[in-house]
Amino acid sequence: MLTLYYARPSIYARPVWLALLEKQLPFQLIPVNLSGQQFEPEFLAVNPFGHVPVLEDDGFRVIESLAILDYLEARYPEVALLPTEATALARVRMVQLLTLNELLPGIFNLLVHHDKAAEASSTLEYAQLRVRNTLVFFESLLADSQYFAGEQLTLAEIVAGTLVPQVSDLGVSLTDYPRLQRWSEQLLARPAWQQIQLSAAEWSNFRRHMRVMPKIWQRRRQQRVTAISQQQFLTT
Ligand SMILES: N[C@@H](CCC(=O)N[C@@H](CS)C(=O)NCC(=O)O)C(=O)O
Predict the structure, then answer these.
(1) How far is CA 231 from each of CA 59, 145, 205, 218, 219, rounded to the nearest angstrom?
(2) Which of 43, 58, 153, 164 has the fewest CB atoms below 10 angstroms from its CB?
(3) pLDDT in tens, 40-57
């Protein structure tokens, strides 16, 4: 039986949730309350890094969202989400990595610094540039195709498709990116996307949460040091 440890709004867990749905696999969800449950010994025994997502498959445990997606693809290839042709594969990997390494930190900094004065303006400017650059790149990569790697839904949609269709909820308009807008609408209409849809209240909660994230991180760093060192002490 497949088990996914997740949190509903988690940007890293949602692609795994979507992949399980798109592959039509039976699975159970275990919610983790990220206000502290991730540092409890029971969860650190599941993932010593205290993060969701975690996937368990018949006793085999995988952490790190991209590793989990690759595992699911190799283990359950029936509904294929990863092309093998070189250029299509490169497109998928570019979209996955740019989403997590450029778009996500850009959006995060826009949210955190949105109302800060001059001292944060270069951070804000850089964040805007990262978001815009990624969206422009994605817009041109889509060209006239239905999906990033052609006419087949892939892990590029699974990863970018949990963030790009939501950027307007996070304060970034998609009106300058008509292809991305069409692509987003198409994804949001799919049953799997509808199943993981967050309500307006959940998005607004998420926005509020992201804005205070640097303070939370500071506290969590200490919690993590304490929790992980205790865990190591217990296991040595
Ligand atoms: N690189 C990891 C990142 C996972 C991650 O940061 N997950 C967040 C939720 S979006 C988390 O569990 N945060 C809890 C914490 O930082 O204490 C992945 O891709 O799975």
Answers:
(1) 21, 49, 31, 20, 18
(2) 58
(3) 999 999 999 999 999 999
Q: Angle at the Cα of 200 (from 181 to 101), degrees rounded to 5?
A: 55
Q: How far apart are CA 21 and CA 33, in angstroms?
A: 22
The structural architecture, per CATH, of the domain 86-194 is: Up-down Bundle (1.20)
* CA–CA distance, 50 with 53 (Å, rounded to integer): 10
Find where tokens 């998609």 sit. Answer: 174
Domain boundaries along the sequence of the chain: 1-81, 86-194
Instruction: Return the CA Rg of the chain.
Output: 18
Residue with the smallest CA separation from ligand 1 atom 16 is 51
Q: What is the pTM of this model?
A: 0.91
Ligand 1 atom closest to Cα of residue 39: 17
* 50 pocket-lining for ligand 1 (C-beta < 6 Å): yes
Second-level CATH architecture of 1-81: 3-Layer(aba) Sandwich (3.40)
* Cα of 152 vs its chain's centroid, Å: 20
CA 114 – CA 141 distance, rounded (Å): 29
Q: Whose CA is nearest to atom 2 of ligand 1?
A: 64
Q: Which of 7, 52, 46, 1 is nearest to 27 (CA)?
A: 1
Which residue bears the tokens 């206000």? 35
